[in-house]
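BUG: 3D viewer hangs when loading the predicted structure for this chain

Environment: internal workstation, default settings.
Expected: structure renders.
Actual: progress bar stalls at 90%.

Input used:
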Amino acid sequence: MKRAVAFLRKELAGIFPSQEIESLIFLIFEKVKGYSRTQFLLSKEKELSDEELLEINNIVARLKKHEPIQYILGTTEFYGLPFYTVPGVLIPRPETEELVQWIIEENQPGSASILDICTGSGCIAVALKKNIPQAHVQAVDISPVCIATAIRNAQLNATDITVAEYDILKQIPKVAFPMFDIIVSNPPYVRESEKGMMEKNVLEYEPALALFVSDKEPLLFYERIADFSLKHLHPNGRLYFEINEALGKQCMEMLHGKGFLQIMLKKDLNGKDRMIRAVCPF
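Structure tokens produced before the viewer hung:
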């Protein structure tokens, strides 16, 4: 194992920062050996089988092509919970954990009805149901692979949520949605012009459908979801968005223009405008 660790550091040097390499090494041994962090630290003298060495080599080869470790391993952690991660489904981000935390803080306790639009992996819906157990949680997405993955993740975490197909832009298929206390969405918000600032592993492997919007209509999803929310939120119901850090002011102005109240822009831990909450006026 000690030689394998040295091999990993050498092969990944120059591709990833040193701190990230150490995290990747632990994740690899967690996958290959099933080790906890303590077991990993205490097992440097253990021998590896030929099969284990081959698996490590295969993982390294994929990492060197900039494939995300979450897709390679098939799992990741979000808000302290395990989630399946597959190609075609956006990988859950730490910033989204902050959005979940904000919703939990503002809406505990209670039996709220919650809708997660553009659910992707289902990470928001599952984490909210896990932490607000009495909530009735529904999640929708346009992508069949996202719907299947969200269902798997709900089962993995023993959470009872409803997952269905719905295109928020075309409003199809026709669904008789109930009224909700909370609507939340982390929709596509990266403008096409911002592609040049993105990492290779995101551009080449993660689904463009879940990431990008036209520069001409950067708030397209937010506008449609806001209109939907005016029809499907209870009076004083809350709408939560994760947003593009460059579009916070525009998003607030859009919500204000539609009549939403108590609009609040919130920064993430990196000091970037990342979340918005608004209250339905009627």
